[in-house]
Amino acid sequence: MSLKKGWIDFATNGSIHGFKYMVDSSISVVERVFWIIIVLCSLAASIYITILFWARYAANPTRTIIQANFAQISTVPFPAVTICNVNKMLNRKLDSLMDTLSASKEELNITGNIISALMRTTSFYETSAADDTKINNSTALSIATTVLKRHGFLDISQVIPHISQGCDEMIHKCEWNRVEVPCQDLFSGLLTEDGRCCAFNYASSNDMTIKYTLYYGMSTGLRITLHPEYNHRAIAGIIVTIHNPKNFPDGEQNLRKILPLGHAHYVQVGSIKQTCSEEVKKLDITFRKCVYSEERRLGLLGPYTYSNCLTLCKAHLSDEKCNCIPYYFQLFLNKQICTFMDQQCLQNNVTTESFRDCNNCPAQCEEDVYDITLTSAKFTNNLDVWMEDYFSNFNETQKAILLNIFFAFNGQTVWVTDTITSGIYLISSFGGIYSLFLGCSIISIIEALYYLIKGHLFWQKSINQNTIFPKQLSTNFIVLQSDKAQKSQNSFPIIPYIN
Q1: pLDDT tens for residues 28-79?
Q2: Which residue, 126, 411, 431, 498, is the most exposed by fewest CB within 10 angstroms?
Q3: Is the Cα torsion angle 382, 384, 389, 390 positive or negative in sign?
Q4: What is the dihedral of CA 203, 237, 229, 181, to 10 degrees?
Q5: DSSP H or E segment with residue 97
Q6: 436-475: per-residue pLDDT in tens?
């Protein structure tokens, strides 16, 4: 009864449109049924639109806008630059290494062929067709492994420094923002998929300082001269990878260029800084669909980045399939390095297709993205005055490279990801939907509670009025004298009354 009473009072006196006609006894049943149908249809429509609105918000709760087109270049770090010789292995150095090994001529030939085949591959687990036969020859691999282990070479990473060009041999002169700097202060050696490389501004550890610059335009930034050695009848040049200072220079996620000898190469760098508002950071990761660097760590690779996550996934996949990792992953993963005998397992089980299983790498919420524009000019027969500071004669220029990497202009783009709607906007939108179809508001909810409580109290009061509860019997009595009492004064019925 309390619910019915509260409902009738609410429908009659409340502010929601159409409810009073559903309980109005003065109109016909047909009219009441009509209004019930109208109200139910309006309620269904408002619920349906609410679900659509919420689904749209949940599917895409954020948007990205351009906050600034001309932010200072100091807002983003100078990109990391990794330089590798196109020739991973130099035949001259391989011959010198073979001369130091004690083995038969046949064993040395087999060992040299295996090393050459491995170093000619595009990666440690993708061989060229010409080298497949050599690497799949278990007998040859066993002989090469035995010869090299006998001389302390347990894996290919220990062989590479003896057969490739070092940074001190390849890079001759360095300038940073027009100031000459010792190259060893700018570059450090790094083993990558491209072999033995030289890295500038790569934060391989958390204690390294990332370089920024306030300068822009040609001749600023990083300017170096290189003399990459090459093999006879081989291509000559360098592989330049431009990447974020926090990202390992994995070729698949970074900008790569192959630059030939005898040219001056100018690399103009533009950058985009992607940031997020505080409202986005408050969202659950399932809604914003991205990860902040501090929310997840990648072991020795440090705070999370998308590129490093994919690289680490590749390393774990190699370890899972073959119980070892390629030599260039040893920087950030303390696992067994693959030997020569493990090459067959990597080739058969770890391919580019298998890397599609790396689906546990969400996007970054905030990162610095770079784009480059390359311009090259061939050296002529006559050296200009300014070039004499870098090259002694024309013949030297034909075997050298001048590389200048710089910010193109003093204006970087800043993108900000923000929420499309806030909590207040959601509430007001839902309120507008229900107000449109039913004419209700927060006051309507308060009214419903009010009439429900009021009806309940009314029901309790009615029960109390219709039920006698004995309380305390008084010592006073009502004396009723019946007709027989007139005959006998001692027989009086005594009836208690409630005081």
Answers
A1: 888 888 888 988 898 898 899 888 888 777 776 777 777 777 778 888 999 9
A2: 498
A3: negative
A4: -40
A5: helix 91-100
A6: 887 777 777 787 777 777 766 665 666 666 554 444 444 4
Q: How far apart are CA 97 and CA 100, in angstroms?
A: 5
Side-chain-side CA neighbours of 485 within 13 Å: the count stands at: 8
Q: Max alpha carbon distance in the chain (Å)?
A: 157
What contacts 184, CB < 8 A, 6 or more positions away? 167, 168
Q: In a 10 Å sphere around its CB, with 0-12 CB exposed, 13-18 middle and 19+ buried, how is residue 170 labelled? A: buried
- Beta strand pairing status for 171-176 and 222-226? antiparallel
Spatial CB neighbours of 96, under 8 Å, sequence gap ≥ 6:
162
- Which are the contacts of 483, defined by CB distance < 8 A and separation ≥ 6? none
Cα–Cα dist 383/94, whole Å: 35
Under 8 Å between Cβ of 195 and 160: yes
Q: Can you tell me the distance from the alpha carbon of 167 to that of 83, in angstroms, rounded to the nearest whole number?
A: 9
Cα 211 to Cα 158, 160, 197: the distances in Å are: 31, 29, 19
- Contact 61/421 with Cβ under 8 angstroms? yes
